[in-house]
Write a structure and sequence with these properties.
Layout lengths: L2 E4 L6 H11 L3 E6 L10 E5 L5 H9 L5 E3 L3 H9 L3 E3 L5 E2 L4 H17 L13 H19 L2
Parallel strand pairs: 1-2, 1-4, 2-3, 4-5
Antiparallel strand pairs: 5-6
Helix pairs in contact: 1-5, 3-4
Protein backbone atom coordinates (compact mmCIF):
# COMPACT_ATOMS: atom_id res chain seq x y z
CA UNK A 1 0.00 0.00 0.00
CA UNK A 2 1.20 3.48 -0.88
CA UNK A 3 -0.26 6.94 -0.47
CA UNK A 4 -0.55 9.08 -3.60
CA UNK A 5 -1.30 12.77 -3.24
CA UNK A 6 -2.78 15.11 -5.84
CA UNK A 7 -0.37 17.71 -4.52
CA UNK A 8 -1.26 20.74 -6.64
CA UNK A 9 -2.53 23.19 -3.99
CA UNK A 10 -3.03 20.46 -1.37
CA UNK A 11 -3.06 22.05 2.11
CA UNK A 12 -2.48 18.82 4.07
CA UNK A 13 0.81 17.55 2.63
CA UNK A 14 2.66 18.00 5.94
CA UNK A 15 -0.05 16.09 7.80
CA UNK A 16 0.00 13.30 5.22
CA UNK A 17 3.78 12.93 5.47
CA UNK A 18 3.81 12.94 9.28
CA UNK A 19 1.06 10.34 9.41
CA UNK A 20 2.63 8.19 6.68
CA UNK A 21 5.97 8.24 8.48
CA UNK A 22 4.24 7.17 11.70
CA UNK A 23 2.77 4.16 9.85
CA UNK A 24 5.91 3.64 7.71
CA UNK A 25 4.04 4.05 4.44
CA UNK A 26 5.53 5.41 1.21
CA UNK A 27 4.12 8.66 -0.18
CA UNK A 28 4.19 9.98 -3.73
CA UNK A 29 3.37 13.64 -4.31
CA UNK A 30 2.21 14.38 -7.86
CA UNK A 31 2.24 17.95 -9.15
CA UNK A 32 2.73 19.83 -12.39
CA UNK A 33 5.55 22.20 -13.32
CA UNK A 34 3.65 25.25 -12.05
CA UNK A 35 4.19 24.03 -8.47
CA UNK A 36 7.51 23.61 -6.71
CA UNK A 37 7.54 20.84 -4.12
CA UNK A 38 10.41 19.45 -2.09
CA UNK A 39 10.19 16.70 0.46
CA UNK A 40 12.55 14.89 2.76
CA UNK A 41 10.07 12.02 3.11
CA UNK A 42 8.02 11.68 -0.07
CA UNK A 43 8.88 10.90 -3.63
CA UNK A 44 7.94 13.93 -5.74
CA UNK A 45 6.74 13.31 -9.29
CA UNK A 46 6.50 16.39 -11.50
CA UNK A 47 4.54 16.26 -14.75
CA UNK A 48 4.25 18.77 -17.57
CA UNK A 49 1.69 21.50 -17.04
CA UNK A 50 -1.47 20.69 -18.92
CA UNK A 51 -5.10 19.85 -18.46
CA UNK A 52 -5.37 16.77 -16.29
CA UNK A 53 -1.69 15.78 -16.67
CA UNK A 54 -1.28 15.26 -12.91
CA UNK A 55 -4.59 13.37 -12.80
CA UNK A 56 -3.46 10.93 -15.49
CA UNK A 57 -0.15 10.36 -13.69
CA UNK A 58 -2.00 9.61 -10.45
CA UNK A 59 -4.15 7.07 -12.27
CA UNK A 60 -1.08 5.44 -13.81
CA UNK A 61 0.65 5.18 -10.42
CA UNK A 62 -2.41 3.98 -8.52
CA UNK A 63 -2.85 0.29 -7.72
CA UNK A 64 -5.51 -1.68 -5.91
CA UNK A 65 -5.36 -0.98 -2.18
CA UNK A 66 -3.54 2.35 -2.46
CA UNK A 67 -4.84 5.49 -0.76
CA UNK A 68 -5.22 8.60 -2.92
CA UNK A 69 -5.66 12.08 -1.44
CA UNK A 70 -7.42 14.37 -3.93
CA UNK A 71 -10.06 17.05 -4.05
CA UNK A 72 -10.95 16.09 -7.64
CA UNK A 73 -14.13 14.01 -7.72
CA UNK A 74 -13.34 12.74 -11.22
CA UNK A 75 -9.98 11.36 -10.09
CA UNK A 76 -11.70 9.87 -7.05
CA UNK A 77 -14.24 8.05 -9.21
CA UNK A 78 -11.52 6.56 -11.40
CA UNK A 79 -9.30 5.38 -8.52
CA UNK A 80 -12.31 3.74 -6.87
CA UNK A 81 -12.75 1.80 -10.11
CA UNK A 82 -9.17 0.52 -9.70
CA UNK A 83 -9.88 -0.75 -6.18
CA UNK A 84 -8.05 2.09 -4.44
CA UNK A 85 -9.31 4.21 -1.57
CA UNK A 86 -9.87 7.95 -1.80
CA UNK A 87 -9.99 10.74 0.72
CA UNK A 88 -10.64 14.45 0.27
CA UNK A 89 -8.45 17.02 2.04
CA UNK A 90 -11.50 17.71 4.24
CA UNK A 91 -11.30 14.13 5.54
CA UNK A 92 -14.36 12.89 3.66
CA UNK A 93 -13.89 9.43 2.19
CA UNK A 94 -14.85 8.75 -1.40
CA UNK A 95 -16.85 5.55 -1.64
CA UNK A 96 -18.87 3.67 -4.23
CA UNK A 97 -22.00 4.77 -2.35
CA UNK A 98 -21.30 8.53 -2.38
CA UNK A 99 -19.25 9.25 -5.51
CA UNK A 100 -22.18 9.41 -7.96
CA UNK A 101 -23.97 12.03 -5.86
CA UNK A 102 -20.75 14.05 -5.50
CA UNK A 103 -20.20 14.00 -9.28
CA UNK A 104 -23.81 15.08 -9.88
CA UNK A 105 -23.50 17.97 -7.40
CA UNK A 106 -20.29 19.08 -9.14
CA UNK A 107 -22.04 18.95 -12.50
CA UNK A 108 -25.03 20.97 -11.27
CA UNK A 109 -22.80 23.60 -9.65
CA UNK A 110 -20.80 23.97 -12.86
CA UNK A 111 -24.00 24.28 -14.87
CA UNK A 112 -25.31 26.98 -12.51
CA UNK A 113 -22.05 28.94 -12.77
CA UNK A 114 -22.20 28.86 -16.56
CA UNK A 115 -25.84 29.90 -16.78
CA UNK A 116 -25.56 33.02 -14.65
CA UNK A 117 -22.53 34.89 -13.36
CA UNK A 118 -24.58 36.06 -10.35
CA UNK A 119 -24.68 32.43 -9.20
CA UNK A 120 -20.91 32.39 -8.85
CA UNK A 121 -20.09 30.64 -5.61
CA UNK A 122 -17.39 31.81 -3.27
CA UNK A 123 -14.34 29.65 -2.79
CA UNK A 124 -13.88 27.43 0.23
CA UNK A 125 -13.62 28.94 3.69
CA UNK A 126 -10.16 29.44 5.15
CA UNK A 127 -8.74 26.22 6.58
CA UNK A 128 -8.73 25.95 10.38
CA UNK A 129 -6.90 23.83 12.93
CA UNK A 130 -10.18 22.01 13.46
CA UNK A 131 -10.23 21.12 9.74
CA UNK A 132 -6.70 19.74 10.04
CA UNK A 133 -7.61 17.70 13.13
CA UNK A 134 -10.63 16.23 11.35
CA UNK A 135 -8.45 15.26 8.37
CA UNK A 136 -5.86 13.60 10.66
CA UNK A 137 -8.52 11.53 12.44
CA UNK A 138 -10.20 10.46 9.22
CA UNK A 139 -6.91 9.72 7.44
CA UNK A 140 -5.59 7.59 10.31
CA UNK A 141 -8.88 5.71 10.51
CA UNK A 142 -8.64 4.93 6.78
CA UNK A 143 -5.03 3.74 7.11
CA UNK A 144 -5.84 1.57 10.11
CA UNK A 145 -8.85 0.05 8.36
CA UNK A 146 -6.66 -0.74 5.35
CA UNK A 147 -3.93 -2.34 7.46
CA UNK A 148 -6.26 -4.82 9.19
CA UNK A 149 -6.20 -8.27 7.55
Amino acid sequence: MQIIVDADACPVIDIIEETAEKYQLPVTLVCDTSHVLNSDYSRVVVVEKGPDSADFKILNLCREGDIVVTQDYGVAAMILGKGAYGIHQSGKWYTESNIDQMLMERHLAKKARRSNSRNHLKGPAKRTGEDDQHFIESFEKLIERRRKP
